[in-house]
Each structure stands twice: as C-alpha cells, then as structure tokens.
Design goal:
α1 crosses α3. The chain has 446 residues and is an alpha+beta fold. The protein has 6 helices and 26 strands. The strands form 7 sheets. An 8-stranded antiparallel beta barrel has the order 13-14-15-16-17-18-19-20. A 4-stranded antiparallel beta sheet has the order 5-4-7-8, with no helix packed on it. The chain has a 3-stranded antiparallel beta sheet with strand order 2-3-6, with no helix packed on it. A hairpin with a 2-residue loop joins β19 and β20.
Length: 446
C-alpha cells in the first residue's frame, strides 16, 4: 500500500467543472464540462457566473458583478461526464467565465442547493501496482475495474474503493454501486487472499481454453491444407474398434444409413468451464464445425457407418455413445443442443446450472410499520440438489433506480431437491418509494 490524499468538497453535486468561452455568430457562448457525482439524473443546472473581458476586468450584467447562468431541458445520467454543454452569454465583451455550482434539478423533481465549498483533505491508502500487482489485478478483474483504494470511514462519511465519497447513511456507493460491507471485505487481507485465488483459477481456465482453441485451430488448418487423412483416421478407428471390441457395448449402432442420418440431425456442442467451446451442426449429409456464432465454419461431407456407430467428416471420426445423446471425437465429448456465444461465452441451453434449474417466482413487496419486505418462492426445476443458495434483492423505485439491497440464504444446508420449492424473505428499513424488488442468485453449493 502507499499513502494517498484526496481533496473532496463534500457539499458538491458535480466535480471537474470547466468552462471555455467560444464565439458563435459573433456572440460568446459558454462551453461547459463537468462530472455528475451520482445523486440522480440532472435535468437542469444553475451556476453563479462572473464574466471577464480580455484584460481581466469584470463585465457587469444589469449593474452586478455576478449573474445566474441557467441551462435547462438536459439529461445527464448518474456518474456521466458531459463535455459540450453550451449556453449563450448576455454580453459580447465576456471572453472568460468563472462558474460555481448553485442549484441542480433532478429527474425525480428534487432540487439540490450548493451550500458553499466545504473541502477536506482525506488521507487514504492506495494499492501499489508495483508491489501489489496480483491484488490490484484481481480486484479490477474479479470485483470492479474502478477499485484502487482501501475503503475508509471518516467523520464526514466514507470513501469507497473506487475513490467516491459517500455520506455516512449511504451504504451503496453512488459511483460503482458496490455495497460498503462487500468492498470492505474484499479489500481486507482475507478477502484479497480469496479474490487472488479466484483470479488464479480464472487465469488457469483462460489459458486452458486458449490452448485448446489453438490446438483445434491448428488441427483444422492442417486438415484443410492437406485435404487427406480420412483413410488414416478411419483405419485407426477400425483398428481401435477391432482391438477393443468391448467398446461397441458403449456405442449406439443403427440398422441403416437413413436411420443414423435421421438420428444425428441437429446441433452438438463441446463445452468447457461454463462455456460452449465449439459446435458441429449436422444437416442432411453435411457437417459444419463452428467456433463463433457468426463464423461460417468448416464444412465437410459425412460418411456414415451405422453398423459401427460412427461417422466421418474430413478425416475426423465421431463415435455415437450409447443412447444416442452424446458423441466422442478423440478425447472431446459432445452433447446434443447448446448455444454457441461469442468467445466461448456462457451457454445455458440444455445445460443445467443453478441459474437454469432454480426458478424464482411469486415476488411480492409489502411494508409494515418498520420494514419494507420482499417475499417469494424458489422452485428446483432441474435434476440436481442445490445447497447454500444465496440470493440478493435489489429494492427499486418506480423508475427502476436501486434504493437499497438485502441478501439471504434462499436454501440452506438442507438443500433443495428436484421438484421441491421453498420460500424466502428479505427486508430493508421501511421505504415508501420502493415499488419492486429484483431477486437474483449470486452464490451456491451443488
């Protein structure tokens, strides 16, 4: 870690305010830029303005040194930087403009008044990329790319790991939308240790996938250039079949080419770590192998061998496993169905995971005298039993803005077996603005 200092005006609603005066049709125009600090969507803004001529003299407006500069009918999203906000100036002699925040109107109808500069020097700790590269990279990849500081409480509020100052009563960061408790944990020594371990696992899996793809690409290119080898692969497959006659008991065989062709039609996918790595698509007597959804792929004619339970495409032999729902190509297995997404993205079609097996339904939001409560039902539509399923609820207003969150175990150590259902309950301090709650699964054991 290394010491860092942040100077923050805790009264400000915007930051990095800059103004440039340009000429438009012989009249001065203010070109304004600033960052919206995340209290809401800005629809209008009022500045205290003071104009100066080329000599640095104040240009009075209506006999006064300062005037209001108001810009309306705008929409600046939370945490958005605006670069080209323009406003006409009341006097052609103004060549320089000094602006100070005065009032801001938000989309929800509230008006925030700037109470004057109230800046503090906050001493915090920053991750040093030179000495803490692993922790730095793990935080940015596995948690949030804006993380660079250790979160810290102050008398005036708290500073998040992304560097945003938040008031003491706000547990959700207005910039990165991370919970204060989550960020404190993930930047603690134990949290960093766990995050680095996950990061290493992710790196290992990425390398493995890249190596497999490289090998497969090399194999396809070699087969494409050579254009031969079908006989060699078939001969090897035949020898293996004769020597290992017992393998036939694990294969699905067919009485005719027509029967096998009909059974093999459709998409077959080879999946890796939560992803479909590549697919073959069989249409009639043609097989197409794809690595990307928009890839035209490599096509080849199919040679059927129904009595052996195999078929060959451009020198590559596929073995139909018993039951006819999976294929083997060397050490690679394929299952029927699956959805290929860009760069080996996650595919949920026909592959069971907690996210496809567990259905959340019957969500209801109510309030009593003290709490706003979300209840609902979790149903296991899959074929596995899931334990320690953690769910998170985002309590929202009618515009979809997240006002607060809560989490709980929807399923505990008892587990949720196939076909079973259970109910859950989450709550926050009563908030009349909450109209809906979005519930999602974020951790589990199977």
């Amino acid at each position: 870690m290394r010491d860092a200092k942040k100077v923050i005006d805790i009264n400000a609603h915007i930051e990095n305010l800059k103004c440039e005066v340009v000429m438009d049709n012989a009249m001065p125009v203010a070109k304004i830029s600033f960052d919206n600090l995340g209290d809401g969507v800005i629809t209008a803004i009022k500045f205290d303005a003071c104009g100066y001529n080329s000599f640095g003299d104040i240009v009075p407006i209506n006999g006064k040194e300062k005037f209001f500069l108001i810009i309306q009918d705008i929409s600046i999203l939370k945490n958005e930087m605006v670069n080209d906000l323009k406003a006409k100036l009341p006097n052609a002699d103004i060549k320089k403009l000094v602006l100070t925040e005065n009032q801001i109107c938000y989309a929800d109808g509230t008006v925030a008044t700037y109470e004057g500069e109230n800046s503090y020097d906050f001493d915090i700790e920053e991750f040093d990329i030179n000495t803490e590269r692993e922790q730095f990279n793990a935080l940015k990849k596995m948690y949030d790319e804006r993380m660079k500081y250790v979160p810290k409480d102050f008398e005036q509020g708290w500073i998040c790991g992304c560097g945003r100052f938040n008031k003491s009563d706000h547990n959700l960061c207005s910039c990165c939308s991370k919970m204060k408790s989550d960020t404190i944990h993930v930047t603690s020594p134990q949290g960093l240790k766990e995050l680095v371990e996950k990061y290493h696992m992710w790196e290992d899996e990425e390398r493995r996938i890249a190596q497999e793809k490289a090998k497969l690409k090399e194999k396809e290119e070699r087969n494409k250039k050579i254009g031969i080898g079908i006989g060699i692969v078939c001969a090897i497959a035949l020898i293996v079949f004769i020597v290992n006659a017992s393998i036939m008991s694990k294969r699905e065989t067919y009485d005719s080419v027509d029967e096998m062709r009909s059974a093999m039609q459709g998409t077959w996918s080879h999946d890796g770590y939560n992803s479909v790595l590549w697919q073959i698509q069989i249409e009639g007597d043609t097989c197409t192998r794809k690595y990307e959804p928009d890839d035209e792929g490599y096509q080849g004619d199919i040679t059927w061998n129904p009595s052996k339970g195999t078929f060959t495409v451009r020198g590559t032999t596929y073995i139909v496993q018993k039951g006819g729902r999976s294929l083997m190509e060397g050490n690679y297995d394929y299952r029927r169905g699956g959805t290929l997404t860009a760069s080996g993205g996650y595919s949920s079609d026909n592959y069971e995971s907690v996210y496809t097996a567990l259905k959340i339904s019957g969500i209801s939001v109510t309030s009593n005298s003290s709490y706003t409560i979300c209840t609902g039902t979790i149903t296991n539509n899959g074929e596995k039993t899931y334990k320690f399923v953690q769910i998170k609820g985002a309590f929202k207003d009618s515009s979809g803005n997240v006002l607060d969150t809560d989490s709980t175990y929807g399923v505990g150590s008892e587990g949720l077996a196939p076909g079973e259902s259970t109910t859950f309950r989450m709550s926050i301090h009563k908030n009349a603005s909450v109209t809906d709650c979005s519930v999602s699964i974020y951790d589990y054991d199977d």
